Amino acid sequence: MKIAVDCRMIGSGGIGTYISELIPWFLKKNQCMLLGTHEQCMSFLRRENVEFCYCDTPPFSLDEMFSFPKDILGQINHCDVFYTPYCNIPGGISIPIYATIHDVVFLDMKGLTSLSGKIARKWFYQRAVNLSRKIFTVSEFSKSRILHTLSCKKPVIVGYNGIPSWISEPSETIPEKNDTILFVGNIKPHKGLHTLLQAFRKVHDEGLPARLVIAGNAENFRTGDSETLREIRSVPEGSITFTGKISNEKLKMLYMQSNLLVQPSLYEGFGIPPLEALSCKTNVIMSDIPVFHEIYDGFPVIFFKCGDSNDLAVKITQQYNALPPQAFPDRYSYKNTADILMKAMEGKK
Fold first, then answer.
1. d(CA 194, CA 176)
2. pTM above 0.85, yes or no
């Protein structure tokens, strides 16, 4: 089987990691034509069973849907199937299409986007469903929300996220813990950072010798997110650090150095930072939302009541100096997910 793989989301956060981790497993059993820029394809240049179709047409653009380059479409349509790790699909593809929809958070949660933004996103999600033979997603929770919010008669197949290769590679040095509470993720309202900031102020006022490190940019806050900005300004100066955009190597070091990772999300499709933190032997506190109970059942994590900063403050104090986690279930891998996706694209169950 020859798979045309859309790589144009490489470098775009979690979706970029997802497709970058799947491609090596695709290449072990199939020929692949990778669609993306030179930079996005660079890490696969020395792989076997691969060819490249360089393309700088942006995802989610009018050009993508209505005037995608004909020469590139010709190369795509000479493959057996087309796979995209998200819901953007070029117009003019005549071979079977498969897409991953990670979540439908913009349809489920109010306040993340305008009404017009919500309508546009639903249009892209529905278009992906309509054009695809099968839809993939990353949790049973996301599957249930896709079926609830979209008109979908196609099979929806769950293939979980895994531990990224840059996390699982052995480290030359193991740093000591350095009195850090870590938050990893974007700063949109559904990530629950507001709850963490309230809890952090409480434990800081009670004398916990911790600083909060936010792996993200302070300037990314939306103008309307005044409540979270007030929480940041209410804690002593210097107790919160924003890393800005950092490399995988730096993020792994932060995981290893931190006493705790806190994942206070109100909504997720999967939620991979806790899995990364556990792999770096860092304890995890997370909100008790349904998807986290699905994904992390049986894992050495602590749940707190979603949105309850008092409960989170208590759990932070209790777990701050706890012994690091050792073993956890070997449940998730991108190899397993790639096998699920490839079988589905081959028409197997």
1. 28
2. yes
Confidence at 226, pLDDT banded by 50, 70, 90: low
pLDDT band at 39 (very low <50, low <70, confident <90, very high): very high
Indicate the residue type of 346: E
223 — pLDDT class (breaks 50, 70, 90): very low
Alpha-carbon dihedral 91, 137, 115, 288, rounded to 10 degrees: -170
Choice between 339 and 326, residue whose per-residue pLDDT is larger: 339
Q: Which residues pair with 33 in a beta bridge?
A: 4, 51
**235 and 201 Cβ atoms separated by less than 8 Å:** yes
**Residue 150 carries which DSSP code?**
S
| Residue partners of 294: CB distance under 8 A and separation at least 6 | 139, 140, 141
Joined tokens for residue 252: 């792994």
Contact 121, 86 (CB under 8 A): no
Percent of the chain with pLDDT over 70: 96
Rounded Cα gap, residues 39 and 109, in angstroms: 34
8-state DSSP, 323: P
Mean local confidence (pLDDT), 201-230: 76
- The neighbour count for residue 93, using CB atoms within 10 Å, is 18
For residues 6 and 29, what is the distance between their CA atoms, to the nearest angstrom?
18
Under 8 Å between Cβ of 235 and 205: no
Residue 208 has pLDDT above 80, yes or no: yes
Q: How much is the pLDDT for 27?
A: 96
Residue-by-residue DSSP string for 154-186? S-EEE------HHHHSPPS--PPP-SEEEEES-
For the segment 116-127, the average pLDDT, to the nearest whole number, is 95
Helices (H), the chain: 13-29, 38-41, 62-66, 70-76, 105-108, 115-131, 140-149, 165-168, 193-205, 226-234, 248-257, 273-279, 290-296, 309-319, 334-345
Q: What are phi and psi of 347, to 5 degrees?
A: 85, 10
